Amino acid sequence: DTRIDVIQPMYNLVKRQAEVEILPMCASEGILPVCYSPLGGGLLTGKYGDGRTGRLTEDDRYARRYGVESMHRAAAELTALAHEVGTDPATLAVAWVARHVSGPVPILSGRTPEQIAPSLAAMRYVLDDALYARLCALAPTPPPATDRLEEA
Fold it and tell me: How far, in Å, CA of 35 to CA of 18, rounded?
C-alpha cells in the first residue's frame, strides 16, 4: 500500500498551473504541497525591473520560462503593490503562495541572508482577503482542466 504525503509542484504568481488539478488534489487527499520557485526565478523580487541580472538574464531555460511579457508586467505591478503596502515584493509573492487554501509550504532559498530575509518575512506576513484578491488579479487564473471550455 503506497501513500503520497508530499509533492513538489512549481507554483508562483505567474506560474499558476498547479491550481488546476494539483493543489485541489492535495486539499482533497491530505497531501502537502511543498512548492518550488515561489519567486519565479527571481522575477517576483522586483530586481529585473530595477535592471539587475540573475537567472532570467543568465540562463536560457529561465529566460524562456519567464520570458512572457504579461509575467513581467505582473512582476512590475507586484512591486508597485508591495511599495504601496510597505513591504518587499518577495514577501508578498511568497505569502501569496502560502495563502492558497491547500496550505502550500513554499521552498525558500537565497544566496545571502539579505536575499532570503524578505522570503522568511512572508511566513509571518498576514495576507488578508482583499490583498490576496488584488494579488490574484495580477496574473491570469489557469483555465480548467478540460477541453470542454463551453462547460466551464
Answer: 9
The strand pair at 32-35 and 6-7 is best described as parallel
Measured distance CA(122)–CA(27) in Å, rounded: 22
State pLDDT tens for residues 118-144. 999 999 999 999 999 999 999 998 888
Listing DSSP states for 64-77 in one string gives HHT--HHHHHHHHH
Answer whether 96's CB lies under 8 Å from 89's CB. no
Q: What residues form DSSP beta bridges with 32? A: 6
**Sign, Cα dihedral of 77, 80, 84, 88:** positive
Res. 148: pLDDT tops 80: no
Q: pTM (2 decimals)?
A: 0.92
All three cell numbers of 50: 530595477
CATH class for domain 6-141? alpha beta
